[in-house]
Specification:
Order of helices and strands: HEHEHEHHHEEEHEHEHEEHHEHHH
Number of helices: 14
Structural class: alpha/beta
Strand content: 15-25%
Distance between the termini: 83 Å
Length: 331
């Protein structure tokens, strides 16, 4: 009897030891394998999520398997705000986040949420990869995060269940969901809308039940989240072009060897290039999907929209220490 008890205890300890070894990422005959938790609020099929998959694959290959990434899609680990807090303490290792949410943690990033601050897609990338982008990256890293790469995220336009939107007057009185950026909230107020910060994952139900009249986002986000199924109108006024980016926990970054850090930077460049190409590939298909359920109207001349926010630009200029003017000066 005593022998059987000892045997059971030995088996139990063996199981616990094996579990401990697995959790720490160690495997027999190999060095330590670090598995990083990567979060995104996007579904698996979006360009951003596919970019994360490319990044994870690259780091595993470039570090010869010593670092792997496990991706958690569709806000499984929490909202963007919750994940940013987890990133700060190292509970999450990497995350894909919009500048719209990052501004709550790094205020200067809110400059990218200023309406019509970017003239085109080319201007957008010239800003992000130039001196202005470098200044913003430094501010992000000074705030305690490691920047890895920028992402294409297209232009944001209004969709709603009340009426097509052609001019700023058409937005007045509508309850519009936006991210928690102060600039985005102020933009909606300037246009006469009633802004609300409904969680991204709750927008579908909010539109369906009439809790909100509409929202604003790019075509891929609208189609991937199926918001077009519960919105009658999508109006392409393209009022914002807000960058997404991938950040890493500073603690997780500092735990890497120099060689691993080099591998991460190489993987980041590969992922950034991939997302640009994937975005261009998916964007037209997203419009086709939306068109099946939703009336799309283009706003060809955006002069009236630019004029409508001109005073807002002037009002916000001191807040960002001339950064708005720096962005506009980029060719």
């Amino acid at each position: 009897m005593k022998r059987n008890v000892i045997l059971v205890l030995v088996c139990a300890l063996t199981i616990l030891f094996s579990a401990s070894v697995f959790a720490s990422g160690q495997t027999e005959g190999a060095g330590k394998v670090t598995t990083l938790k990567i979060s995104t609020n996007h579904s698996e099929a979006t360009p951003a999520s596919k970019g994360l998959a490319v990044f994870a694959s690259e780091i595993e290959e470039l570090t010869e398997g010593s670092v792997k990434g496990e991706i958690f899609y569709s806000s499984v680990l929490g909202s963007e705000r919750e994940v940013m807090e987890q990133l700060k303490v190292g509970a999450v290792d990497l995350t894909h986040v919009s500048a719209g949410f990052l501004s709550a943690f790094v205020p200067i990033v809110d400059v990218f949420n200023v309406p019509y601050v970017f003239r085109s897609g080319e201007h957008y990338w010239n800003v992000l990869t130039g001196e202005v982008g470098a200044e913003i990256i430094q501010a992000i890293e000074d705030a305690g995060y490691k920047f890895l790469y920028w992402e294409e995220s297209g232009s944001r336009s209004f969709y709603n269940n009340v009426r097509p939107i052609y001019t700023p007057d058409d937005v007045k009185g509508l309850k519009i969901r936006v991210m928690g950026s102060e600039v985005m909230l102020e933009t909606m107020t300037t246009l006469g809308a009633n802004p609300t910060t409904t969680a991204f994952a709750e927008v579908y139900n909010a539109l369906q039940t009439g809790v909100i009249d509409g929202a604003e986002n790019n075509s891929i986000s609208v189609s991937s989240m199926k918001h077009n199924e519960v919105a009658k109108y999508y109006s392409l006024n393209e009022h914002m072009r807000i960058p997404d980016l991938v950040l890493m926990s500073t603690d997780s970054w500092n735990a890497l060897s120099d060689a691993q850090k080099d591998a991460f930077l190489d993987a980041a460049q590969t992922a950034q290039d991939f997302v640009i190409e994937e975005w261009n590939r998916q964007e037209s298909a997203a419009y086709d999907i939306i068109r099946e359920t939703t009336e799309i109207n283009e706003v060809v001349d955006k002069t009236i929209w630019v004029d409508a926010v001109a005073e807002l630009h002037e009002k916000l200029s001191p807040k960002f220490g001339g950064m708005i003017e720096k962005i506009k000066a980029v060719q």
